[in-house]
Amino acid sequence: MELNQLLLFLTVASCLAVIFRAVRSPTAVPWLAAVGVLVASGGAWIFARGYAGYVSFGAWFLLLLIPAIIRNPRSFRRFRPHGITPVVLTLVLLNVAMFTLELVKTGPDLRALLLGYDAPRFNLALHTLGEVDPIYVVAFHQYWRLIAALFLHYGALHLILNLLGLYVLGPAFEIEVGAIRFLVIYMLAGLASTGGVVLLMRYGAIAPAELVGASGSIMGIIGAWGGYLLRNRHAPLARQRLMNIFFIVATQVIFDMLTPRVSMSAHLCGLATGFILGLILAHPARSTPRFAGKLA
Predict the structure, then answer these.
(1) Does 127 participate in catalysis according to the annotation?
(2) Chain centroid to CA 73: how far?
(3) Spatial distance between the Cα atoms of 115 and 119, rounded to a whole number of angstroms
(4) Active-site residue among 215, 217, 263, 265?
(5) Phi-psi map region of 237: left, alpha, beta (phi>0 left; psi -120 to 50 alpha)
(6) Model pLDDT for residues 151-198, shown as the tens digit of each residue
(7) Model pTM?
């Protein structure tokens, strides 16, 4: 997916989230500005499709982000409610270290590294380091690829988006359930995402393709949040946060449907596994859950 398309999707999804919140609390969010961004995005899609994402992002920046910062600069501290936690920090460093190896093996092909465009040396580096190739996993029993692929990324943009999701969603959940349970959920959901894709490819349910990325694990954390909140649905704000989880999942599914190179199967396998683990393993680290995560 090109950067132009990605910016367009993220901007539209952000505006829809603002409008969704406005339905519940009309005076709390600038829904008219979000509508204005959507109108600008639609116009750019009709008249300048090749630049629609950049126009859409510019409108979002001017009409939503800057006014929000001016109105309440302290509100943006909520994106770091607890700082970064030990397991999340370790996972971030592992992903960055593996991407550094990709840089070393690929060389100076910045276009491929930043945006994930096809390049022979880049694809060879990913394959050498452990991308999920169903032929090598099934025929040559290279099962280590199912785990190694979770720490590889198809370009810097892919890495940044996944680490951003981990940074926003991970620390609060790690504090809520404890470091060991968090790590177990993250790894098992990731393994289920890569293993599930290989099984689906093996039996012809989906077309064979190479797979890398931490998004299956991150979708597992989202699913685990959902299972955890569902089990504690009578706690304060649990239902509201469940609705936020539902919106995140719905947005991700739409994104996957519009992006052929993204593996919806991997995301759904990780999401479902995380949800089950959230119901089974995510017992609070304290006697009473406090829902530390700011999912609102």
Answers:
(1) no
(2) 25
(3) 11
(4) 215
(5) left
(6) 998 878 788 888 888 888 889 889 988 899 999 999 999 999 999 999
(7) 0.75
